Amino acid sequence: MARAEATAAANQQAEFPPASGRVDAAVAERLKHFYHDMLLIRRFEEKAGQLYGMGLIGGFCHLYIGQEAVVVGMQATLQPRDQVITTYRDHGHMLACGMDPSGVMAELTGRHSGYSGGKGGSMHMFSREKNFFGGHGIVGANVPIGTGLAFANRYRQNGAVCVTYFGDGAANQGQVFESFNMAALWKLPVVYVIENNQYAMGTAVQRATAEVELYRRGSADDIPGEAVDGMDVEKVYEAGRKAVQWARDGKGPYILEMKTYRYRGHSMSDPAKYRTREEVQQMREKHDPIDTFGARLVRNGTLRDEDLKAFDREVRQTINRAAEFATDSPEPAPEELYTDVLK
Amino acid sequence: MTQILMPALSPTMEEGKLAKWHVREGDAVKPGDILAEIETDKATMEFEAVDSGHIAKILVPEGTEGIKVNSPIAELRQEGEETDAPSTRAAAAEPAGKSAPRPRPVEVRERAPVPAKGAGETPAVQVAAATPEIPQGTEFVTTTVRDALRDAMAEEMRRDENVFLMGEEVAQYQGAYKVSQGLLEEFGERRVIDTPITEQGFAGLGVGAAFGGLRPIIEFMTFNFAMQAIDQVVNSAAKTLYMSGGQMGCPIVFRGPNGPAARVAAQHSQDYASWYAHVPGLKVISPYFAGDAKGLLKAAVRDPNPVIFLENEIVYGRSFPVPKLDDFVLPIGKARVIREGSDVTLVAHSISVGLIMDAADALSKEGIEAELIDLRTLRPLDTATVIESVRKTNRVISVEQGWPVCSIGSEIAAVVIDEAFDYLDAPPVRITGKDVPMPYAANLEKLALPSVEEIVSAAKRVCYR
Ligand SMILES: Cc1ncc(C[n+]2csc(CCOP(=O)(O)OP(=O)(O)O)c2C)c(N)n1
Ligand SMILES: [Mg+2]
C-alpha cells in the first residue's frame, strides 16, 4: 500500500469531487484507493483477531475495526515528509502509512521479521522510512511527542506537518492540554486528530469529560477545532486537507474531532458490557465506513459490484500471505534480548 | 468447511467454558453475529463470527467446561469458500495438522489459578496458623487474591465512612482486573468513583482529600500508569509530613497491579518495587498470598501514612487459604518465613514467592534445604528476619522481577553484608529481571524474567554443589 503516497500525490492536483455525479479519473483513482485501503485494514484486523484467538498473538491487541475511514482519509491529505504518531490502537495507522502488512503482522506474532524485530509487539511499532513514529502504550504520552515532532519541523523549517492521533479518553490527560498550549504558543505545525470512538475502555465520553464536544478542547488556546463524521472517508479527507493546509501554512495547530466507533471490545479481553448489542449492530448496519462508501461508489458509477469483490479477493490474499509470513517467521534470536538498549 | 476454534479471549486464558450457544446448526451467520458466550478466567465474553456462512455442525455442547484454546467447537460452511485461498484459510482455522500453530507461549509463568502450593501440606498455612494474628483453630477459606483484596476494601469501607475508592474503571466496569467487583453496588457512586484517564490529577486529588480528612484508596489500573503520577506520590504524599514539621499527614493507599503480566511488552511490564522502596515517607507492601493481601491491605487503609500497595495481575487469579476472622489485620513491616531450611535462604516478594517455592521443592530433591522468606513489606524492610535466617544458613539469594541495578536484592545484599558478614559462606546472589526493557516476543520475554532454573543453579553454586 505505498498507494497512500500516490493518493497523496493525486490530490495535489484534483479538487474534491461532489458525493455523486461523474468524477474525473484522478479523483476516481483516489476514491478506489480509499476503498481498498479501508478494506485492507478491516481484513488485517479480522485476521489479527483470529490469530489472537489461536494464541499466536499475545498480550494486548487493540483492533481498529470500525474506525478505518479516519486514518485512510487523513493519510491521503499528507505528503511523504509528514509524520504520523498514534496510540496502541495502531495497526490501521501503520497500514495507511504504507507499512508492509506482513511486517506488521509478524510483529504481532512476536517474530524476528516484525517491524520491531519482535520486541515491540502490537502497541509498539515504528517505521523511520514511512515517518511513522509509533505505537505508544501510555495514554496521552504520544501527544507531546507529536507536538515535539512538529516543533522540530518548525525549527528546521522543513514544511512538514505532524498528525497526532489520540482517543477521547486520552483527551483528558494533563499533558494533552500542556501540548495544546505549547503548540498554540509557538504556532507548531501539528494536526491533532481526536478519534472519538465514544468510549475509553468502558467509560463513555460523557462519564469522563465535562465538555463532550472534544473539538472545543483547544478553545482556551484559540486552536481551531472541527467535528467530523469519522465514518465517512470523504468527509474526513475534506476536513483533513483544510487542517493540514492550515498547519503547513504556519498558522499553528488544528484539532479535528473524528466521531467514530469501534466495533470490537477495547482489547481482546473486554467483555464490553458497557454498551448494548443493538448500539453496535446499529453502527455496523447503518454507518459502516466501508459498506456505505462501497455502495456510494457503485451508485455513482465509480466502481461496479464485481470491482468491490475483486478488491476483497486481492486484499484477502495479501492478508493471508501476511498471516502465513507472520506464523512462519522465526522468533528473535536469544541474543536479541540484550541488543538495542543503548546505541 | 472451516472449523471454528475455541478462541483465546484474554492474555492469560488457556481454557474456558462454553456457557451458551447463540446459534444452532443450519443458522446463517455473518461477521459480527454472536456465536457463543464463553467464560474466560476473567469474564464472560461474547464470541463473534468473523466470516459469513452457515453453521454446519456444533461440536461442543453448551455448558462444557475446560475447553482448551484452539480446539474446534463448530464447523462453518462458507459461501464462496473456493475463491478464498484454501490453503491459508485452513492454516488459520485448523488447530492440528499441517500448519498447527505453535503452542501458546505463556505456559511458564501462567500457572492455572488453582490452589497453588499449599492448600493442604502447605508451609504457608502452617506458618500462618502459628502467627499471633490467627488464633488456634481458625477456619480457613480458599480465596483468590483478587477476592481477598476486594474483601479487604469492602470491610474497611464498612468500618470507616471516610474510606473511598477512586480510579479508572473501578466502578461500573468493576475494575479493569475485576478487583473492585461488587463495590459500586454496595457503596454507591459517592464512594466508588470512576475517574477520567488523568493519573496525575486523581493521585493529587487523593492527596488533597487525605489532607482534608478522608481515607482515599487510589487505584492505578497498573503501576505503569502511576509514572504519570509519581510526582504527586513522592513530592506531595511522601514528603508533606516532614515538610510540615509533623502537622500534616497523608493517610492514603495507592494500589494496583505491578510488574509484568503476560506479553504486554515494555511500557506495560515494569516492576516498580525498588522505586517506591527508595522513598522515605512511604510504606511499601507487596504480598503474594491471599491472606497477606487481605490483612495487609486492611492495615494499609488504617495506616496514617501514604502506603504503596503493589499487587500482581497474574497472582490475582491464584487461590490460597484466608483465615475466616471478622477483622484480620496484619502488621506492616514483617516478613514471614514460609518454609524452614538449613542450607540457603531464598528471599522474595510478590509473584517471585511462587518461584522460590518451586525452587525449594526442586532443591529438596537434590538434598538442599532452602529456607524461604516472603518479605511482604519492602519499606520498612524486615531486615531482622533476613539476618536471623542468614545466620543459620550462611547463604542468601534474593529473587525479584525488577531490574538488577539498585534493586530490592541490592538492598538485601548490602544489609546482609553489613550485619551478617561473618556468617556468610558465599557472596549474596541477586536474581532479577534482566537489565533490559521487557521484550514482547514470547521467547525473549521468558528469558527476561527470573526462572526456577536460575534459582536452583544459583543455590547449588552458593552451596558449592
Ligand atoms: C496513562 C495510562 N493510563 C491508563 C492506561 C490504560 N488504558 C489503555 S487504553 C485506555 C483507554 C483509552 O481510551 P481512548 O483514549 O478513548 O482510546 P481508544 O482505546 O478508545 O482508542 C486505558 C484506560 C494507559 N495505557 N495509560
Ligand atoms: Mg475511545
Describe the structure.
The complex is a heterodimer of chains A (343) and B (465). By secondary structure, chain A is α/β, with parallel strands linked by helices. In chain A, 45% of the residues lie in helices and 9% in strands. Chain A has twelve helices and seven strands. Chain A has a five-stranded parallel beta sheet with strand order 1-2-3-7-6, with helices on both faces. Chain A has a two-stranded antiparallel sheet with strand order 4-5. In chain A, helix 6 runs parallel beside helix 7. Mean pLDDT of chain A is 94; it is low at 1-19. Chain B has 465 residues and is an alpha/beta fold. Chain B has three domains: 2-95, RNA polymerase II/Efflux pump adaptor protein, barrel-sandwich hybrid domain (OB fold (Dihydrolipoamide Acetyltransferase, E2P), Beta Barrel); 127-323, Rossmann fold (3-Layer(aba) Sandwich), CATH 3.40.50.970; 336-462, Rossmann fold. Chain B has 15 helices and 22 strands. Chain B has a seven-stranded mixed beta sheet, with helices on both faces. The chains are: A alpha/beta (343), B alpha/beta (465). Thiamine diphosphate sits between chains A (89, 137-140, 167-170, 195, 197, 199-201, 266) and B (168, 197, 199, 221, 225, 228).
List keywords for this structure.
heterodimer; A: 343 residues; alpha/beta; Rossmann fold; 5-stranded parallel beta sheet; two-stranded antiparallel sheet; 45% helix; globular; disordered N terminus; B: 465 residues; OB fold (Dihydrolipoamide Acetyltransferase, E2P); 7-stranded mixed beta sheet; 5-stranded mixed beta sheet; 22 strands; binds thiamine diphosphate; binds magnesium ion
Number of strands of chain A: 7
The biggest sheet of chain B, with number of strands, parallel, antiparallel or mixed sense and barrel status, is: 7 strands, mixed
Q: Low-confidence parts of chain A, pLDDT < 50 over ≥5 residues?
A: 1-19
Spatial order of the strands forming the largest sheet of chain B: 11-10-12-13-15-14-20
Q: Which overall shape of chain B is indicated by the principal axes computed on the Cα atoms?
A: globular
- What is the H level of CATH, i.e. the homologous superfamily of the largest domain in chain B? Thiamin diphosphate (ThDP)-binding fold, Pyr/PP domains
- CATH top level label of the largest domain in chain B: Alpha Beta
Structural domains of chain B: how many: 3
Number of helices of chain A: 12
Question: How many domains would you count in the coordinates of chain A?
Answer: 1
Give the mean pLDDT of chain B.
Answer: 89
C-alpha termini separation of chain A:
31 Å
Of all chain pairs, the largest interface belongs to:
A-B, 68 and 70 residues
> What is the CATH class of chain A?
Alpha Beta
The secondary structure category of chain A is alpha/beta
Please tally the β strands of chain B and state the result.
Answer: 22
Strand content of chain A: 5-15%
Query: Helix content range of the residues of chain B, please?
Result: 25-40%
Shape of chain A: globular
| Secondary structure category of chain B | alpha/beta
